[in-house]
Amino acid sequence: MYNVFLLANQNNGESPLADAISRAGLSCQVGPDLAPVEESEASSQPDVVLLDLATVGWGQARGLVDRCKKLRLPVVAVLPREGVAEYDPSLNPDELVLCPILDGELLVRIRQAVYRVIGP
């Protein structure tokens, strides 16, 4: 099972992505910033970061992806379908998925991102 850190600016603590992560059988921590991850010991860091582009601005998203890369944490960006025209590939996440997301696809994208960054 993967530990997922969901980067999202939450509304009232609820996130449809957190629900999808739970349905996929993964554990999840949600936060608006990487500070808890950066402050944790290596043994308690998440396996992957899911970046909710519906709630995180593009400027903030770029900085977050860069920080994840420095930590060697795989990043899966989740883009709302209505935001496809505005997507900038220079954001350069390890994986990209469109939302609403199928539970099985979420797991496959997470596995692929982890493999790309960390290996088998």
| Series of H and E elements | EHEHEHEEH
- Described by the principal axes of the CA atoms, the overall outline is globular
- Round the mean pLDDT to the nearest integer and report it: 89
- Poorly predicted regions: none
Assign a percent range to the helix content: 25-40%
Radius of gyration from the CA trace? Answer: 13 Å
How is this structure best described in words?
The longest helix has 16 residues, at 103-118. Strand 1 (3-7), helix 1 (16-23) and strand 2 (27-31) form a beta-alpha-beta unit. The protein contains four helices and five strands. It is 35% helix and 22% strand. A five-stranded parallel β-sheet has the order 2-1-3-4-5, with helices on both faces. It is of the alpha/beta class. The chain is globular and about 40 Å long.
